[in-house]
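Hi there. Long-time user, first ticket. I'm pasting a complex I've been working with (about 916 residues overall). I'd like to know whether the download I got is complete or cut off, because the file seemed smaller than I expected. Thanks.
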Amino acid sequence: MRRMKGAAIAVSVGLLAAACGGSSHNSSNNTGSSSPTGGASGTVASPNGSASGGSGAPASHKQGGTVTISNEAGQNWTCQFNPFNPAVNSLSVGFVYEPLVYVNSLKAGAETPMLASSYKWSDDKKSITFTIRDGVKWNDGQPMTADDVAFTFNLIKQKPSLDLYSLFTGAGLQTVTANGNQVTMTFSDNAQTYFYLFAGQVGIVPKHIWSTGDAAAKPDTWEDPNPVGTGPFMVNPCKPNNITYTANPNFWMPGEPFIKTVQYPAYLDNGPANLDLANGKAQWGGQYIPNIDAAYKAKNKDNNYWFPPMTNVALIPNLDPSHKATSTLAVRQAIAAALDREKISQLGESGYQPAANQTGIVTPTFNKYFDSAALASSGYDKPNVDKAKQLLASAGYGPDKPLKLSVITVSGYTDWDASLAVIKDQLKAIGIDLTIQDLEGQTYDDKLFKGNFDLAYGPQLSGGPSPYYELRQLLYSKNSAPIGTDASTNYERYINADVDKLFDQYATADDAGQVSIIKQIEAHMISDVPFIPTTESVDWYQYNTTDLQGWPTKDDAYAQPAPWNYPDDEQVLLHLYSKSAQK
Amino acid sequence: MRFLLRRLGFFVLTLWAAMTLNFFIPRMMPGNPAQAIKAQLNHSGHIASPAQLNALLASYGFDPHAGLLGQYLTYLKDMVTFDWGVSIGGSSLGTPVRKLIAQALPWTLGLVGTTTVMAFLLGTLIGIVAGWRRGGLIDGVVPPVFVVTSALPYFLVALVAIALLANGPHAPFPNDQNYDIGLQPSWSGQFIGNVLKHAVLPAASILITAIGGWILTMRNNMISTLGEDYVRMARAKGLSNRRIMFGYTARNAFLPNLSGFAMSLGFVVAGTILVEYVFNYPGLGHMFYVATASIDYPLLQVLFMLVTVTVLVCVLLCDFAVFLLDPRARAKG
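Hi, the file is complete. Here it is re-exported in full:
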């Protein structure tokens, strides 16, 4: 997840106007939701036209009203809606294309049946059969069938560049067949942990459109300017500076969507996007707003925000022996012991991003997996400068032989700069001289991927509905690569056969077993210190309640709330209704 | 005639050299398109192997394994034949470059082009008058004021303009976009009026900061030209003030400014990134920034090419204009 986007330009602009800051997400930033445990349950009940699994069915409301989204796009809309194009799928999946099942990362993978009314796993979890919902129509009026579902996955199989979730290469998906109203998928291995990807993320496309013409010839590059999907909204029309979505009259949930129109302007920068949110021109934000209480909340009593934490922001040490200091355990332990994470959160992130902890479990989102006792007994729960100094001395560094380290970060991510300034101070106290290298995005990526750093601040990965997804990306040895070659996601190059085995066992474990596996991985996080979490990266989310009701809140976390979270955006849109339209 | 031919030959040679640089400079930037896309996919919850990344890029027409020379030749051919390919940048992946340019170019030309011409014309006119009446009221007030405003960064002017005139529910001007969202582009009076309303603040902030330079140079050129013998000669002949002012003084004082103007016209195509940022105005300057940040070779090289070509064409036209205006250039040629 990306927090501080934009160049020095945007930052210098931010100096003047409080409302203009240099940061936020890209439109396509989605935190992939993932299913873990819920998949074990076998079948899900039909929703009765309700939109949400977690929060109970939204009551019925009259239709009407408009919601305007403010989320920095960084560029004009290209008016392409191909759900297989990673640059634009956040604009089509959720609004127009729907997944089989919605999986809520914020509620431990709570499921809401969408295009599949139910599903059943085989006992060994190597095959799954979905029952496709009856009576669903494409927005051009044609009926949606199990054939369309099987067609979608077989299209992905034929054309590897469509396989954005590595279903056929990573997840072991082998065949997808339709029979009556059922679709069966078979896998080479237990596929439970991939449920959220194939059932929760892939938007189903209509066979009658995608099997002819340009769509069939070039499914990966086809523009799909007028997307035909089953979702609650239709594109009508798209202009470079704004997308208008209007309610789909053929939508399968009776009476839904309550909101008639969604406006999605293309914001090139945070400044205007934040200003529009503050003055109420836009009601749904996914923006980083500096000094949000004064610049946004105080402007209108109906302006609200909530930032649910999803993943870690961390110091990533280079574990390769060629980097002597950072590959020494005592040095990493010393850094982990020296950091006052509460202070980093307060001073560096204005408290918007809460403090992280050394277990790597994002709290409170994943409290179920959090081993607080282990953290307390490890001593990493509070900063301990004396212990850190001792550890550093045991590694051969001290006042007479200071340790010099450098950390790479992305220039323009001003909150990271502020956090690193705090970290630099805290490490200075134990005798580490930290140099902060502000690199421009591409240089940073190149160094991070190739392992050309002592410490890196990052890693901007996405999570899932359990800590498994983020931790596996960072700690699984297959995600690593030799220094000099792009590593997939294990940038620190952590290789531990025991941890690999734990990840391999996770899929076949039951719910309690999975919690226990994560706790064992936490133990390795504490003993090996493969990376050092500092703060928790959040979903930025602002909402205005003057006319619109039904927003996700801390107490009713029925979906990830930012407009760039897909397909979660569909759940939000199905809950929203306009007060003025109810009269 | 030899002068013109030489200029033309020089133009072609410069164009080729610049285009070659345009090809190689982006490729010397750190990182590569595969990494840029990988970073974006990682942030957004997708999972893709290196082989898949390359397959993805290949289906968008970028083959990372093609040799540099092969890429270069294809590039030259594509630039000449206007076959510009599709973008491989993060947020515009797969969009034809021609479409991207066509969407942004009119807005940049309209806003930056008009203001550049206006700044030049107004600035030159004020400079002529101020220089002619040296020490007068206009000369005492206008140039100093605009010299001060031209020293202000234009995003600062823009932000002050937004704070004063485009903040709050009853603000007279909009703070962002090129026209109200939800309006359909058409040639109706309502739409054109809306576009103009959205252009006022960005145009004013460019104008205020750009005009000072023209005034100052024109005024100074005027003053030094007024000291020339042929001006005294003209006065001695008893010509009218207006004739001396425009026909004798301004015409000569204007020449050095003209090539400066040609250059700045050429750079119109590069847009004004800061103004576009602050006003959320969809032009080429912003596109430049995005293309660079996402290592979008196809888009970058076309943008570079457009700037190069327009600058060179404008300079060439300026050479021709000088040829017409200045008898000395003709004599030398």
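A couple of notes from our side: The first strand of chain A starts at residue 66 and ends at 70. Residues 1-56 of chain A have pLDDT under 50 and may be disordered.
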